[in-house]
Amino acid sequence: MKKHHILYIAITALTLGGCSSAGSSLANAITDPLTPKPHGKTTLAINDQNGNGLLRTGNDVADTINIAGRNYGNNSTLDIGHLWQNRLTSFQYILKANGRNLEDGQLEVYKRSYSAIVGAHVRNRYAPDGTQQQAQPNEFQIRSIQGTLTQENQLPTTGTVRYQGHAFAGSDESNGRLDYSINYGGRTGSGQITGLPDFGNITLRTGNLDRHNSNITGVAESQRRGNGNYHLNIFGPNANEIAGKAHNFTTQQNGGNLIYNREVGFSGSRVN
């Protein structure tokens, strides 16, 4: 009898799926249980915000970004509700201005409940005449960090909160681990990133908490790539998460030339 009931439910759901979008969702939930359902942060803002916009690349500003075959203009949104949390999801992208390609490569999106980080593994840039210029090997830039910032009156005023999570510098350097603590009473934070072979251990030196903007900045020391900086923001109604980047590392080779620009994104959730 139980088997008949299950079969009846499945058939009913599939029948409804042909009649309405609600039925389709129900059918998908039953027949495709491995498809992730909307959860966590659900959208990404597409804009040309200086320093944090997905339409920015160096000194150039695009008017369109093509992500996985679909065009998005300024002040549009990308649905990421169905993406898995706490792992990277990759999309091919092309940045364009006035119909001309500026840059292409692969976007890496990492999201949690209240925040998301978007990095760009740049493959090619294009001159004004359309000439293709291959990017430096392993070039990876954190283009945008978005989410629901913790308001100043929501931040703890005492105690130390520990955050643990992941760090990445592209799809080939995606297994890093983050361990970071914020002393909310002392208004400081520090931690470390491990598990990224190209960087070795990264020490996130003590930085000062800016309560008004819910962020911390400090020095990042990499075993293999020298000194850089890091910046993070605090997200969620209860200071639930942190998300940030480590960048501007000083790795040099013969002659003092920078090998390539590679940045690290990191994200963690509180564990106490």
UniProtKB/TrEMBL annotation:
<feature type="signal peptide">
    <location>
        <begin position="1"/>
        <end position="29"/>
    </location>
</feature>
<dbReference type="InterPro" id="IPR011250">
    <property type="entry name" value="OMP/PagP_B-barrel"/>
</dbReference>
<protein>
    <recommendedName>
        <fullName>Factor H binding protein-like C-terminal domain-containing protein</fullName>
    </recommendedName>
</protein>
<dbReference type="Pfam" id="PF08794">
    <property type="entry name" value="FHBP_C"/>
</dbReference>
<dbReference type="InterPro" id="IPR014902">
    <property type="entry name" value="FHBP-like_C"/>
</dbReference>
<keyword id="KW-0732">Signal</keyword>
<dbReference type="GO" id="GO:0009279">
    <property type="term" value="C:cell outer membrane"/>
</dbReference>
<feature type="domain" description="Factor H binding protein-like C-terminal">
    <location>
        <begin position="154"/>
        <end position="246"/>
    </location>
</feature>
